Amino acid sequence: MTNRENFISLIRRKGYEHVPVEFVLCPSLQEQIKERFGTDDYEEYFGFPWKKIEDIRLIDHDTEIYRPFFNPPLAEKGEIDKWGVGHESSPNSMHMTYMRHPLENAESLEDLQAYPFPDFANGYKEHQKEQVEDAKKRDLIALGDMQITLWEISWYLRSMEELFCDMMEGSDMAEFMFDKALEMAKVRAESYVKAGVDALFFGDDIGMQHTIMMSEDLYCEWIKPRLKALIDHVKAINPEVIIFYHSCGFIEPLIPHLIDAGVDVLNPIQSECMDFEEIYQKYGDRISFHGTIGTQTVMPFGTPEEVKAEVWKNLDIAGEKGGLMVAPTHMLEPEVPMENILAYVEACREYKTRG
After folding, report:
1. What pLDDT band is residue 272 in, cutting at 50, 70 and 90?
2. In a domain, 355, yes or no
3. DSSP assignment, residue 80?
4. Nearest-angstrom CA–CA distance, 9 and 11
5. Which of 22, 56, 88, 329 has the fewest CB atoms found within 10 Å of its own CB?
């Protein structure tokens, strides 16, 4: 099988010939990889199965227009992303930041409607088709990365506390935030799919370490219908596009809803709060999985042998038909030993020939 054939067959649970390798590194680990292997592109060096396609490019989008929305003012060295969300860092914050919400102080629907949301509809899109064609010529899966899709971008802008209050009150402010998030997501996703991507990666963290972030009723009222509308929209354009969905934490009660909404692959099945074998037995005939290797446990604190054993155990659970793209469940942080990263790679490459 080619890489593309192998990937699609694995995800569709129709068997596979080799195990894809995929992980995300924090900046300090990227530097270690560069020093050790002399590469600026660790994804290409380790032979990742996909290439991420660039999002719509916003035209004349000056993020400084968002600075007046912060009260108290954003720190002098604070950064503002394309959505208008503020980020403040400290000498000890590594790559994480303290998030500031530009619509936290909004008091009315009119305040929300006056916000200058990014104009994706009139952005530049021509590069996407070129990048997709290049990826496919190189036998790579073309991936549109759209994590922070509906729930997260809504609370990033409004603040989680205020958005939850809006939802509990059933206010038109909550309706507007989620509808606006869906509107922007549809534009971005449609552009990706029309450019020819093989897969879209949606995602919103809806789980915490030991429980879901909101009740099933609240999720089904506010989030699920819009996620389903988004997936229906893109699959009406291309029914074969593969939908990945990311959520950290414990989300088992919501898995049936994600399947019903049209999700094809669920990431990451966080091993510290969900048992992959149990999840696979319950849902593995209806959805595939990506992840399962704990980034709070075995990756930072296990031995290379334990990392390999975990990889092989989970691949054995999924069996010959596949349905598992085994990978670390989240970004690998500074405390993860390089030997464990290499052990994961070796385990994937050795799986079909070991023993």
Report:
1. very high
2. no
3. E
4. 6
5. 88
The pTM (predicted TM-score) of the whole model is: 0.97
Domain count, the chain: 1
| Spatial contact of 85 and 101, defined as CB atoms under 8 Å apart | yes
Reply yes or no on whether the pLDDT at 355 is more than 50: no
Indicate which CATH number applies to the domain containing 141: 3.20.20.210
Q: Which residues, in sequence order, are CB contacts of 198 under 8 Å at separation 6+?
A: 4, 8, 50, 141, 142, 143, 241, 242
The region that residue 60 occupies, defined by phi over 0 for left and psi between -120 and 50 for alpha, beta otherwise, is left
Strands 79-80 and 50-53, sheet pairing: unpaired
Residue 324: strand pairing partners = 289
Token representation of residue 168:
């509990």
300-304, Cβ contacts within 8 angstroms, sequence gap of 24 or more:
300/333, 300/335, 300/336, 300/337, 300/340, 302/340, 303/340, 304/339, 304/340, 304/342, 304/343
d(C-alpha 185, C-alpha 198), whole Å: 17
Angle at 150 between CA 9 and CA 271, to 5 degrees: 55
Q: Could you tell me if residue 267 is inside a domain?
A: yes
- Whether 196 is covered by a domain: the verdict is yes
Within a domain: 16: yes
Q: How would you list the strands of the sheet with 199-203, edge to edge?
A: 50-53, 141-147, 199-203, 242-246, 265-267, 288-293, 324-328
In terms of residue numbers, what domain contains 52? 3-350
For 79-95, the pLDDT digits (tens) are: 999 999 999 998 777 77
Give the C-alpha separation, 259 to 321, whole Å: 19
Distance (Å, whole) CA 16 – CA 203: 26
